[in-house]
Amino acid sequence: MTIPNTEMVKRILPNATEIFEIKTGGQKAVFRAADNDYGTVVVKIMLPDGSGDRLNREIDIVSSNDFPNVPKIHNHGTFDIDEIQCVFIIEQYIEGSDLREVLSKNSRLTIEETIRLIEGLLKTVTALEMCGVVHRDIKPENILCSLDGKYWLLDFGIARDLRQSSLTITAAHFGPHTAGYAAREQF
Question: What is this structure's pTM?
Answer without folding.
Answer: 0.84
